[in-house]
Amino acid sequence: MTMQIATIILPLYDNDGVSTEQIRSFCDIKLLKAFGGFTMDHADGAWINSDGKVIYEPVCKYEIAADWSVYLNRKILYQIAKAFCIDARQECVFVGFPDNVIFVDAKVGSLLDPSKVDTED
Questions:
Q1: Cβ neighbourhood burial of 105 (10 Å; 0-12, 13-18, 19+)
Q2: Residue 104 in contact with residue 79, Cβ under 8 Å?
Q3: Which of 40, 53, 70, 82 gives the lowest tally of CB atoms within 10 Å of its CB?
Q4: Domain 4-116 is of which CATH architecture?
């Protein structure tokens, strides 16, 4: 097993300026249960929206060590990002794996029901 770092970036506030702390706390628990730990730093992010406006926002940058060649590990991190994206009403959430980057969007209903993120397989 080769451990490498993956990154997930979660904003501190939703698009209406409401704190995402409660949603991030749920994600923290899911990350801890699935991977045993993480390192989190506060950072600032920026992106350009569809109107060409530059958006600056404070974020939490999580680094998670795991064997990312294992499909289940990628699936779990993807599901956590998807759940956050939906419940924090984000256009997308950045997830960086050692070999690629994905922007997870919100195309389905909430996944924050703990039964939806299976960490036992």
A1: middle
A2: no
A3: 53
A4: 2-Layer Sandwich (3.30)
- Cα distances (angstroms) measured from residue 33 to each of 18, 43, 53, 58, 108: 26, 24, 38, 26, 24
Mean pLDDT of the 95-116 span: 72
In the chain, the amino acid numbered 61 is K
39-48 and 4-11 strand pairing: unpaired
pLDDT in tens, 33-47: 999 999 999 999 998
User: In a 10 Å sphere around its CB, with 0-12 CB exposed, 13-18 middle and 19+ buried, how is residue 63 labelled?
Assistant: middle
Give the domain ranges of the chain. Answer: 4-116
Reduced to 3 states, what is the DSSP secondary structure of residue 97? coil
pTM of the model: 0.84
State mean pLDDT over 69-93: 93
